[in-house]
Amino acid sequence: MIIMVDRDILVIIIFDLIGISVFVWFLWSRLSAKLKIIEQRKINRSMGKKNTEDSDEP
Length: 58
Description:
- This protein has one helix at about 1-55.
- It is mostly helical.
- The protein has a domain at about 1-30.
- The longest helix has about 55 residues, at about 1-55.
- The N and C termini lie far apart (about 90 Å).
């Protein structure tokens, strides 16, 4: 009985670690994708400002 309880706890711990790993991977992938989008928006804004400044000059 004691061996079975230890085995059950070990299975639960492994399952939890796998679940936490998947959760961290999911959050990391979403965060990195969002940061890429924000970086691209900054580049587009800076390019847009440079283009409008150039077009204002005669």
